[in-house]
Design goal:
The complex is a heterotrimer of chains A (261), B (176) and C (633). Chain A has eight helices and eleven strands. Chain B has two domains: 55 residues, no CATH class; 105 residues, Glutaredoxin, CATH 3.40.30.10. Chain C is an alpha/beta fold and 633 residues long. Chain C is 39% helix and 13% strand. In chain C, the strands form six sheets. A five-stranded mixed β-sheet of chain C has the order 12-11-15-13-14. In chain C, strands 2-1-3-4 form a four-stranded mixed β-sheet, covered by helices on one side. In chain C, helix 12 links the parallel strand 8 and strand 9. In chain C, helix 3 packs across helix 4. Chain C is globular, with a radius of gyration of 27 Å. The chains are: A alpha+beta (261), B alpha+beta (176), C alpha/beta (633). At the B-C interface, helix 2, helix 4 and helix 5 of B face helix 2, strand 11, strand 15 and helix 18 of C.
Chain lengths: 261, 176, 633
């Protein structure tokens, strides 16, 4: 198992670990944005840059995907690494000036503003980290959203920018979005959930007992596809929200217990 | 739309997902652009999510999502052409015809593309009209060439389409 | 070759399966050509074609076909010779005249005269010969022309000699003999050793030692190895690879077969950028021909080795010249680069060991196998062996393609070969390495060209583009051009490139519009450092080189823009003035009439005057004046 030195702290980590894994084990914080253990690391936000010394040479590498080796010495707090991370955050702040989450992360890094003006008319508040697209593809398996265009004018959208037939309005994209750009909106009047800004809407299933909203119909369909039981039977089981279901189970267990006595 | 064309193209490449871009190029060679409906069929035929196909089609500059004009004009905006005034030529054409690089005139007479270097730097600035090279241009001479373009007859159009279809089928049979 | 370029009938009906058979065919083809045959070679390379050489070729072909059989006249369309400035170029071989006759700036009306005088009768048409500008002498043979004299051609050796659509021509001049030698007398390790010995480094810009790359790929583990030819030549102002792909496509194929054999690959790809349809066509024809003779396909040269090549066209993205982006494109995905912490020789295309090399690199392999690695390493310098093809363009007298031994100085290339700056204006800088390179000013003209020397100056040799700029070129505007180019071509994956380049562009726009502020240069330098440190791929990392190098060597020009709001080169509109020269002004009044703000006054037939307070410096008067009486100050 490789042993690596990070900011002077030595840690032993399993093979195939990344520098980020090792840093976490060593208790050293490295800021990240486009990294999420649930999806593949694409290392495109560049916020997790650290300085690496190897074979007498020093370079900056992204810690979320650089595989740990025994012959490297990592410095998270070197001036060069800090300067690079600062520069990246400043560019991001210029790109997504309205995101509070981004400002908070910046503050944690000791950055409280950006010298750069917002120079592009970009998709509102999106830092193009790609987490939403990767989650949709790799975890949910829908690939309803993705990148369109190229370069500065790149943006996240659905196919042909129309409401997607592949979207199940599960909201996973909203959950992983690190800057709060993607939102789940509940429409009381129609009983629908909408994923903004992707124009996806779907009807929400409702708990028969307490009336609380559960998942969307398409999500239920998708899960049913995976468990492969009869839809009607599935619907029977899915009539109640988790809480009501638990209460009912508890009640029936209690009844059984009572009967036993 | 030509029935079964997508399937023909997919079969030609043995359904190899890695050949998505050549397939889209063949599709565009037939229609002059990428019709959304055909891309949907392609998505199903290759079992590739439609979003990914849309991603690829919007990433590469050569793909068009709208029909192109009768004539294709490509302006070289490479370094040497730029030094010799290709921007002025581009601006002049765009102003005269009220278009931008990458778009087609409203009467569909021509589509204007701007590319970065066609490799004919010796005669910069360069403009390619329907595959024919014109060099050593000025804004005036470029406009003159475009003014000389016409719509051509229906027959010419059909002939051109037939010719391009023959080329595509030749390409396909060469691959077998 | 006919004008659709579908190639001629192959002489041999069956596959070549041994060096002896190949040699026999080669000899047969050479003997077939009657020494009394008169040959006209018309350059149909990109530069000459753009000047109308295709029609000239057609005319010669028709004339040749219509003359009696016994006259033995052959008309060939050949690839780029290199002296594009003087195109269209026509070379005549006539048995009665020793050497060849090199005609330049040939026009359609000249064809009849050349045919009648030179082709039929062996007489020279003096006025079409190259004239030495210093001596005034006419030069008959290209070897004596200063442009060609000091060149050494390896990759371009057959360009201009052979018909690129004829495999017979290629074989007659020794083509595929390296392949025969490699596959029948050498084993893969020998081949790799020879390439290592040669010191060949990648010609696409990266400069990685080719032999080492081949060895790593050979040693890597994978069920299917790939070899790729990177024909995505995207640097604006560069057409070296195009000249090879269109002028001698078989040289690339031969190199790839040898490389594939050495590495253990059965499948190759040639990735050609979308903007080169003719290259795609020529390569396609060449691959078909190679198949017919058994140089591609199963059991090549009687060996159990099988290999095939497929051509993929790019979709129109400069970034696909980057190897990992190219491979992504070959997988049917967007051309986004990825981190190279794991090398592509181990995990490349479809996660398999992949060896990618540039067109020029592949085209050089056959010479190395035939003449030996030691021979190749005897040319050039310590770190940069062999020769390199360069594209000499811009404000230079002899625009064109050159191949020179590494170590030749910039001065020798630009002045001895290039003829110096066009119109004898003052040399300002030479830009090398495309958007990843920088500007090199006059004080470094004696720098020898090579991989490392130019990098030390803040530029790089790159793939071979050399753009000469003169006193009338504004370096700030020039740097802005490159940043704008990269803004359009950035893939958008990583933050520094995607966001940093527009920030740099914004600052440069302000500067060239007279809105520069104090601190702008520092901001540019900070962004440049950030891009170099934090970008994911070489496009982003080197994006700021044009800006950095121009700031370094031409700081005063930047400062004039920022502080004085003045463009010394008089290129940036609004940052210089127009004045009417009284002696040259005829008082015709055209400028007055066209001035959109009525800033010009003057009586008819009297010198006019521009009121500088009103003048918006739009330049209309300058363009309209038929007497050139208005100057920029």
């Amino acid at each position: 198992m490789p042993k690596v030195s990070i900011d002077g702290v030595e840690v032993i980590v399993p093979m195939e670990s990344t520098i980020l894994d090792a840093a976490q084990k060593a208790g050293i914080w490295i800021p990240t944005l486009c990294y999420n253990p649930a999806v593949t690391s694409t290392a495109n936000c560049r916020l997790c840059l650290v300085e690496l010394r190897r074979n007498g040479r020093s370079t900056l590498v992204t810690s979320c995907n650089y595989p740990v080796r025994s012959d490297i010495v990592v410095s998270v707090s070197s001036e060069r690494a800090q300067k690079a991370r600062r520069g990246v955050m400043e560019l991001l702040l210029a790109r997504a000036p309205e995101s509070n989450e981004l400002k908070e992360l910046a503050k944690k890094m000791g950055i409280d503003g950006t010298p750069y003006p917002t120079v592009t008319e970009a998709q509102r508040n999106c830092i193009l980290c790609g987490l939403c697209t990767r989650v949709c593809e790799e975890v949910i398996g829908c690939s309803a959203i993705g990148f369109a265009g190229r370069g500065t004018d790149r943006f996240v959208t659905t196919a042909f920018r129309l409401a997607s037939e592949d979207c199940i309005a599960c909201g996973a994209c909203a959950v992983v979005c690190p800057v709060g750009t993607i939102q789940i909106r509940i429409h009381e009047d129609t009983g629908e959930a909408e994923i903004s800004p992707f124009k996806s809407r779907a009807k929400l299933l409702v708990c028969e007992k307490c009336g609380k909203r559960m998942v969307t119909e398409p999500v239920a369909f998708q899960v049913n596809d995976k468990v492969k039981i009869d839809w009607e039977e599935f619907r029977q089981r899915a009539r109640l929200c988790p809480e009501c279901r638990r209460k009912r189970t508890a009640e029936s267990v209690a009844i059984v217990a009572l009967k036993k006595d | 739309m030509k029935e079964g064309l997508v399937k023909e193209i997919v079969d030609c490449y043995n359904g190899d997902q890695g050949m998505l871009i050549p397939m889209m190029q063949d599709l565009q060679a037939e229609y002059g652009y990428l019709p959304p409906e055909e891309l949907r069929i392609l998505s199903r035929a290759l079992d590739i999510p439609l979003m990914r196909i849309y991603s690829v089609s919007t990433f590469y500059a050569s793909f068009r999502h709208a029909p192109k004009g009768q004539h294709e004009i490509t302006l070289c905006m490479g370094t040497v052409c730029y030094l010799k005034g290709s921007k002025q030529i581009s601006d002049t054409i765009c102003e005269e015809y009220n278009i931008e690089p990458g778009s087609t005139t409203s009467d569909r007479l021509f589509t204007l593309n701007a590319v970065n270097c066609v490799g004919a730097c010796a005669v910069a600035p360069v403009m390619i009209v329907d595959g024919k090279y014109y060099g050593n241009l000025t804004p005036e001479s470029a406009l003159e060439i475009i003014h000389g373009l016409d719509f051509g007859s229906e027959e010419e159009d059909t002939e051109k389409t037939k010719k391009s279809m023959k080329e595509v089928s030749n390409r396909r049979s060469n691959r077998e | 070759m006919n004008s659709t370029g579908t190639g001629e009938a192959i002489l041999s009906p069956h596959l070549i399966s041994s060096p002896a058979e190949l040699e026999a065919l080669s000899e047969k083809l050479r003997k077939q050509k009657d020494p009394s045959t008169k040959t006209v070679r018309v350059c149909i390379g990109p530069g000459c074609a753009a000047k109308g050489s295709l029609k000239i070729y057609d005319l010669f072909t028709t004339a040749a076909e219509e003359s009696p059989e016994n006259m033995k006249i052959d008309s060939k369309g050949v690839g780029c010779h290199g002296l594009c400035e003087r195109g269209p170029i026509v070379i005549v071989e006539h048995g009665d005249v020793p050497g060849e006759i090199f005609y330049q700036q040939v026009e359609e009306p000249d064809v009849a005269e050349i045919f009648r005088e030179t082709v039929l009768s062996g007489r020279i048409v003096e006025r079409l010969l190259y004239e030495d500008s210093t001596t005034g002498k006419k030069i008959k043979s290209s070897k004596e022309i200063p442009f060609y004299k000091t060149q050494e051609r390896i990759a371009l050796a057959q360009n201009g000699l052979i018909d690129p659509t004829s495999i017979n021509d290629y074989i007659a001049t020794g083509g595929y003999s390296a392949l025969a030698k490699a596959l029948t007398t050498m084993n893969p390790e020998d081949i790799i050793e020879e390439v290592v010995k040669s010191g060949l480094r990648g010609r696409g810009g990266g400069g990685f030692p080719t032999g080492r790359k081949w060895r790593s790929c050979r040693d890597a583990k994978g069920s299917q190895k790939y070899v790729i030819c990177n024909g995505d030549e995207g640097d604006p102002g560069a057409f070296m690879d195009r000249a090879v792909m269109e002028g001698n496509p078989h040289s690339i194929i031969e190199g790839m077969v040898i490389g594939a054999y050495a590495i253990g690959s059965s499948q190759g790809f040639i990735y050609v950028r979308n903007e080169y349809p003719l290259s795609v066509k020529r390569l396609g024809v060449a691959i078909e021909q190679a198949h017919k003779l058994g140089f591609l396909g199963k059991n090549i040269m009687g060996n159990s080795f099988s290999f095939d090549i497929r051509i993929n066209r790019g979709g129109g993205a400069f970034v696909c010249g980057e190897s990992t982006a190219l491979m992504a494109s070959l997988e049917g995905r967007v051309g986004e680069p990825r981190a190279k912490y794991v090398h592509t020789v181990e995990h490349g295309l479809h996660d398999q060991p992949t060896n990618l090399n540039n067109v020029e690199t592949w085209a050089t392999i056959s010479s190395i196998i035939n003449k030996g690695g030691e021979w190749f390493s005897s040319i050039g310098t310590e770190d940069s062996k062999g020769t390199k093809v360069f594209c000499l363009v811009g404000k230079i007298k002899n625009t064109g393609l050159v191949e020179i031994p590494m170590g030749m100085t910039l001065r020798q290339i630009i002045y001895d070969i290039g003829g110096g700056v066009k119109n004898d204006k003052a040399f300002k800088a030479v830009q090398t390495g495309g958007p990843s390179g920088g500007c090199i000013p006059a004080q470094f003209l004696d720098t020898p060209v090579g991989f490392d020397e130019l990098t030390k100056l803040g530029s790089m040799m790159g793939s071979g583009g050399m753009i000469v700029i003169d006193e009338d070129t504004c370096v700030v505007n020039f740097a802005k051009y490159y940043i704008n180019f990269l803004r359009q071509e950035s893939c958008g994956k990583c933050t520094p490139c995607r966001e940093g380049i527009p920030q740099m562009l914004y600052i440069l726009e302000r500067i060239t519009h007279g809105e520069g502020e104090e601190g702008d240069l520092e901001k540019l330098e900070t962004l440049a450092q950030l891009l170099a440190d934090a970008s994911l791929c070489a496009l982003g990392k080197t994006a700021a080189n044009p800006v950095l190098s121009t700031i370094k060597y031409f700081q005063d020009e930047y400062e004039a823009h920022i502080i004085e709001k003045r463009c010394p080169a008089k290129e940036c509109r609004g940052l210089f003035s127009y004045e009417i020269v009284p002696d040259a002004c005829t008082g015709c009044g055209i400028c007055l009439k066209n001035c959109p703000v009525d800033a010009i006054s003057g009586e008819k037939k009297e010198p006019h005057l521009i009121d500088q307070d009103i003048c918006t410096k739009c330049g209309t008067c300058f363009e309209k004046c038929p007497f050139g009486a208005i100057v920029k100050v």
